[in-house]
Amino acid sequence: MIEFGTGGWRAVIGDGFTRENIRRVACALARRMHREGVADKGMCIGYDRRFLSREAAIWFSEVIAGEGVVLYFVNLAAPTPQLMFTTKWMNLPYGAEVTASHNPAVYNGIKLFTAGGRDAAQDVTDAIGAEANALSADTIQSLPFEEARAKGMIRFIDPRDAYLDSIMSQIDMNAIRARRPRIELDPMYGVSLTGLMTILYTARCDVDVINDRHDAFFGGHLPAPNPDTLRDLQAIVTEHHADIGIATDGDADRLGIIDEKGNYVPANEVLVLLYHYLLKYKGWRGAAVRNIATTHLLDRVAAAYGQPCIEVPVGFKHISAAMDQHDALIGGESSGGLTVRGHISGKDGLYAASLLVEMISVTKKPLSALVEEIYDQFGRLHMAEYDWALTETTKADIQRRVMVEKQLPDFGMPVGSISYLDGCKVCFEGGWIIVRFSGTEPRVRVFAEMDTMARADALVETMAGFLGLPFPAVGMEEAG
Predict the structure, then answer these.
(1) Beta carbons of 368 and 237 less than 8 angstroms apart
(2) What is the pTM of this model?
(3) Which positions ≥6 away from 185 have C-beta within 8 Å?
(4) Could you tell me if 255 and 278 are in contact, meaning their C-beta atoms sit under 8 angstroms apart?
(5) What is the dihedral of CA 162, 164, 169, 174, to 10 degrees?
């Protein structure tokens, strides 16, 4: 069955991610475009460097063309945010990227975008998924790729320059040129290399790169920028006395950061750093938007500048919608995805990386000093993040107990509030804990934030024991 989650449709290659299912998704989308009266405007598609990504984009395109919709094909592996930009830039009703983002190498998938370059809303993807699952393969129309190109139904495009120029127009390139920082870059075998190198070299940065070759197995690691996968980047930052280390995930919509001392900077802190920079150093104003599993330190920064902080469910489409609704300045999540007002409506690792380089250049302060500036003014919070693989039986049991029967353990402290906006989030004075199911994998995640890591871990241990899950488990960040 084709099932869209918080970050699009993802499935194991050869199991759910098959040529037949890819064709079904394409057909359902093309027919939806006809019903909406937008088929004549066409759509765009791109792909990342995963196994079968280009082939899947071709299979998808053949059906779109066969169903009578013009398809604009980005003929080089490209970041997901570039396709979101392209959808907006070309004023297209839909766009797509073949990617499974942070998932293991055995996965692939498709992300869908709607007008303005936004992540497709849940009702849209639910409808497309349901229609795709109901389709019979023999009813799907298609045109062979080269024949469709000859007929003008598939058209190659290269939007990279427009995308990169848009980013550079929003970044203080002169401040970076004056500072000329030394940067270590880890694209994690993904698609950010050309774009980031173009931006950084244009700003006259000194750049070294690791893990830049095409490897569909991502060097045997998960293509997600977290402490376990960025140890090589930490080592090279200290070895080369760099100002910052930057890593991006497989499709370059998220990033991971290493400071000048070789320390991993958690994604929560990156989001807070950039919001504080925009408010204090650039004098901008606007709300912050975060998902329900992202640090409340962002709330403290917002309050200090008289701005609201809006909480939404996990899934960047919810952040984008709230940013539009509240004209928010920044939106982000604890997994390393963020965007800023005036850029695309989705998360963009290249833009976020460029803004971080601007930040250390404009402030003329080391990254570690900027982090300490946050702690000194707003205090410190620690987040414990754990997840567990689930069987269907275990998932059903947790769903029944926590979400239906509303059972909770005794946390040993007064409960301030309980939210079922997305999973179950329990707030206390000075902290919170959430348990929720992953929207991209068969896993349950438990995050807790408190004033010390010991107290955060203790909360997770209490919840894990209540749910019958082993503790400790291997921590792993949620991605989109």
Answers:
(1) no
(2) 0.92
(3) 193, 196, 197, 200, 207, 208, 209, 210, 245, 246, 247
(4) no
(5) -140
